[in-house]
From TrEMBL:
This is W2 domain-containing protein. InterPro entries: ARM-type_fold, IF2/IF5, Transl_init_fac_IF2/IF5_dom, Transl_init_fac_IF2/IF5_N, Transl_init_fac_IF2/IF5_Zn-bd, W2_domain. Keywords: GTP-binding, Initiation factor, Nucleotide-binding, Protein biosynthesis. One of its GO terms (molecular function) is eukaryotic initiation factor eIF2 binding. Residues 237-393 form the W2 domain.
Length: 396
């Protein structure tokens, strides 16, 4: 299914945050007519929110009753509602309960503290209060995912404290219930579990992981759509369309272009040999025919992919192309795609192996990254075995 930008006001085709379009099915007749949102679970997961939240939001905004059946993943809005109307309403939910109000990016975690909803942004570090006047807010405060809360409270007190480097769970036996930090712990872990996310280590700040250091957050703020210009805001630009977006737009508008024309445009924009341009290049010149087109594009790839950082960004572009843009057509072809790059000597062995170690949300959602790398496992195993054989020959 084609993906759309989480922020639909951002036209940038390379915007990193994607979700499925809502799909609906109208059932019943007369007074019993209802609209089933058939992919609410998937869309909600992509927004890192429980599906009950946007479903209830529809009821609040449209003034109608809703049915939330988490067990069977069935989410219903009474009445006949067109998909595009619900999509417009979902934009309102995203703006109020997903986007950071400081940087306008959707990397937020909901924290419930003293009866208020706080939006903790993992992109810029801001913590803003949600609109508590909205009818959905009491529902969120009173209805965290029940099983997640139950599982958390069953954990041994010491284990919870060790995992979070804080004190006891305020809701566990022996807790006094007055520690504000305990509310944070519960809310954050509930939110992560509800969205199907795994708790991550705060260590391993290497290049493939999400670096949460102050410098890294500042750098990501420069790269994200903080000024409404998409995912590639530049240090040297104070507004408007930046050079990477210009390059991407030019590629899409002039597809197919010759290698020389692409190289000339990259030079004109000053992006040739820049790692960000490699991701844009992959998504701009390839489509579902990438397996046959890769050898034809060897010249332009070698001009762009000039160092290890560029190699990693190229793999990031492949992840987006395979995992988002043409998932149905290309996911199972990822070993062949990587092999073609290998044969062209575009990516080095150790970069492949480092990339394949674990999922990363650097270029796509973690679940998308996981799916791509799992599909790439046969190729990665082959590279690893070839490396081992080479090492053994050198030692002999």
């Amino acid at each position: 299914m084609a993906a759309i930008n989480v922020r639909r006001d951002v036209d940038d085709p390379f915007y990193r945050y994607k979700m499925e379009k809502l799909t609906v099915k109208v059932e019943g007749k007369g007074n019993g007519i209802k609209t089933v949102i058939t992919n609410m679970a998937e869309v909600s997961s992509q927004l890192s929110r429980p599906p009950s939240y946007p479903t209830k939001f529809f009821g609040c905004e449209l003034g109608t009753q809703v049915l939330i059946d988490d067990k069977n993943e069935r989410y219903i809005v009474n009445g006949n509602h067109a998909a595009h109307n619900l999509q417009n309403t979902l934009d309102g939910f995203i703006n109020k309960f997903v986007l950071c109000q400081s940087c306008k990016n959707p990397e937020t975690v909901i924290i419930i503290k003293k009866g208020e909803i706080l939006m903790d942004c993992k992109a810029c570090g801001a913590r803003n209060k949600a609109d508590m006047r909205h009818k959905l807010s009491p529902f969120i405060v009173k209805n965290p995912p029940a099983e997640a809360a139950k599982d958390l409270r069953k954990q041994p007190k010491d284990a919870t404290a060790q995992a979070n480097n804080t004190g006891e769970d305020a809701n566990s036996p022996g807790g006094d219930g007055d520690d504000d930090g305990d509310d944070d712990i519960i809310s954050q872990r509930i939110q992560k579990q509800a969205a199907g996310l795994k708790m991550e280590s705060k260590l391993a700040l290497e290049d493939w992981s999400e670096d949460t250091s102050e410098d890294a957050v500042a750098q990501r703020m420069k790269e994200l759509s903080v000024r409404g210009v998409g995912a590639f805001a530049d240090d040297d630009e104070e507004g408007g369309e930046n050079k990477y977006e210009k390059f991407g737009t030019w590629l899409l508008d002039h597809k197919p272009s010759t290698d020389d024309a692409i190289i000339d445009m990259a030079k004109e924009l000053g992006v040739l040999g820049k790692y960000k341009a490699c991701q844009v290049l992959v998504q701009g010149i390839f489509d579902e025919k990438i397996v046959t087109d890769l050898p034809k594009r060897a010249k332009v790839l070698k001009e762009f992919v000039v160092d290890e950082k560029c190699q990693k960004a190229t793999l990031g572009g492949i992840e987006r192309l395979v995992g988002i843009d043409f998932k149905d057509a290309l996911l199972q072809k990822i070993p062949t795609i990587l092999l073609k790059l290998y044969e062209l000597e575009i990516i080095e062995d150790d970069v492949y192996l480092e990339w394949g170690k674990k999922p990363s949300k650097r270029y796509v959602d973690r679940e998308v990254s996981k799916a791509v790398k799992e599909a790439a496992a046969p190729f990665l195993k082959w590279v690893e075995e070839a490396e081992e054989e080479s090492s053994e020959e050198e030692s002999d």
